[in-house]
Amino acid sequence: MTVDPMRQDDIQRRLANMAKAPRCGAKTRTGHPCRQAAVRGRTRCRMHGGAKGSGGPRGDRNGNFQHGLWTRESIEMRKITRAKIREIKSYLQAISRKT
Fold this sequence. Notes:
The chain is an all-alpha fold. The longest helix is centred in the C-terminal third of the chain and has 27 residues.
């Protein structure tokens, strides 16, 4: 590849414009801010949700479904299960003491 001196000014101008672009603003896994340029018209880069079509659907189509972990029935079932486990452990300890 040869260096074209006629294009050097164009390359320098483009690099300067890229440096002025707004940054993403998302935090990376290391906790540092992302250094990618944000997608035009958005506040995030293409990898952090700025790409077209990224994110969930709007409105009711993006359901707020519950997992049911903290329903009354689930809590009660866990309490019963823990009580049964304690009962079995105490029974096993009583058997092991007799022998």
